[in-house]
Model the fold of this input.
Amino acid sequence: MHEIFTTRNNPHVDPFMTMWGWEIPVYLFLGGMVAGMMIIAGYFLFSGRHKESNCSCYSIPLTSFVLLSLGMFALFLDLAHKQYVWRLYTTFQITSPMSWGAWILILVYPALIANILIRPPSWMTQRFPKLSDIAGKPQTHPFFIKNVGILNMILGMMLGAYTGVLLSSMGSRPLWNTSLLWVLFLVSGLSAAAAYVHLIAKNKAESELLAKADNGFLVVELFIFVMLFLGLMSSARPHIEAAQLLLTGIYAPAFWVFVIGLGIVIPLGMQLLAVNHKIKHTPIAPIMVIIGGLILRFIIVEAGQYSHWFNAHFK
Done:
């Protein structure tokens, strides 16, 4: 199975030793953001917010469908042996994160489609009139809607966690080899998703709710960073040097400025003022959060590839 995921640049070496380009960070970011959007939409369905006509839970699934497809396309571009991708779905290896990821990604699509069919957008029902009949039935069954919400939340959490587990399972990369990476990526994906919903929500109460939720996610994300670095700095020398790549090394300026500063601290301050009605809500803060989440993936992937147990060039 590893051969399928070996990068196209050098298909004859261990996939853990190859260098990834822009495709993998983009895939990890879009996958994490879609995971967060599924959890948020699922919560809205489960809690009954779908009864409001302008609930964003009706637009999120279609956006998630498109973003996830773009993410999978980015992943496909990075594969060395594209013609053998289908083999991932002829078996399931319980000890392989790649196998788990492949099947989770496939299961996510039916959950998104079920959410879309609860109330399809008007352009879909105009083009496919039969969708109106299909969509009319689930709306009269709250039990069905709640279960779609639960399914979206469960698969969303699995998808968000998987994006971090995929990297943390690679023991040859000290920066990635931490049990907190999947938590960081899950919370970061939730933060980016909350920022997006805050940005596009037509319901003011819903927008306010997501701004407050995003503030919580950003605080938790900062805490996870602290715990992650404490764990790395108290481990073996390769882990300490891996942490120093972000703290004081070559990736430190981008990490501190774009991820911590512009991606977390500044938008957190702006949104805290906004939810306390000190200033008006602005699209600047959620946009910064989303961009910060994307840059985080690029830095983690790039720095993780630079870190290695036998790398003598950390400094």
The two ends are 35 Å apart (CA to CA). Residues 35 and 159 are 6 Å apart (CA to CA). The first helix runs from residue 2 to 5. The chain has a mean pLDDT of 85.
